[in-house]
Amino acid sequence: MSFIYAEKYREADSNRDSVRILCDTKVTATNYSKSNFSETAYDLLLKYGVVKSTICCPELCVSFAGNNTVYATKLFILLNEMKTFEVADVSDYAFKLHNEAPNTNDIEFIITYFLNDQIHIDCIKNRTLERDVPFAHIGSEDAFKDFQRIRLSGGGDAATQTERAFHEVVNGGNDETVGGNVIAVIYDYQLSSYVYRWERAFHSSKPQTVELGKNIIFYSSASDGGYSYEIEHKDIENVLITIDQMNPAILYSRRFRVDSSDIENPNLFGLMMPMLVEANENGDIVRFK
After folding, report:
1. CA angle (55, 9, 174) in 5-degree steps
2. Per the CB 3.0–4.6 Å rule, which of 38, 124, 189, 216 could disulfide with 259?
3. What is the rounded distance in angstroms from the CA atom of residue 260 to the CA atom of residue 38?
4. Low-confidence spans in the chain with pLDDT less than 50
5. What is the DSSP-derived secondary structure letter of residue 160?
6. How far apart, in whole angstroms, are the C-alpha atoms of residue 85 and residue 77?
7. In degrees to the nearest 10, what's the CA dihedral of 131, 136, 137, 142?
8. Is 12 helix (H, G, I), strand (E, B) or coil?
């Protein structure tokens, strides 16, 4: 079902709120009908998933979870057709779509927006719209319980444990509907925009015991499930994941599609879909062939 968590927090040396919106990328065949995709797009979807936070415009990020994401694309289409809208009204549109869905877990939303020099988080689930909350989660309740257990057992300010706990839950596999990569969206005050946050990190699927005075191995071999990666914000429509042990890279995009039929399909509008890409001799990102 996915797992998304958003929270406002304040750095020690800052006098204004920051925000992070964390999502996994895993999708399951039960959540995405094969009839909605070209064959190539569907294969990529099951292998690499989707980024479940879409930056609609610099001031607005829409995150979603549920068993029927067509309702998310309905929201994206509505906003596109309106051309101009007030970001504070988007939660009302999302709430209406949530209430129209036959089941409460068909679609849930976290709407994060910047207005009047303030960050706002609205949460829509269980037929309820909660406005301007300090934190919110949607998707798997089992994943959230594990997340809270890890986060609150870390000691100190729970906000400092948020990302570690979220990564552990996504990588831990206790809920088979949650997994893949962790993508973070933040609000960048210098750019006056929500952005996909840059990250350079490593992943190791096995625990490591390090003797006193010995070097830490930052990632295990690929055969042991270890890899290092970089997440790069290209623009509000595209985020790139480069895995050092893998070529090609993965571009998640709401602009580009692997097949013309996917471009024309309204059920995919606004979704951050995966595409395999590589850098050409000029350093430009092009589709992998």
Report:
1. 75
2. 38
3. 9
4. none
5. G
6. 13
7. -120
8. coil
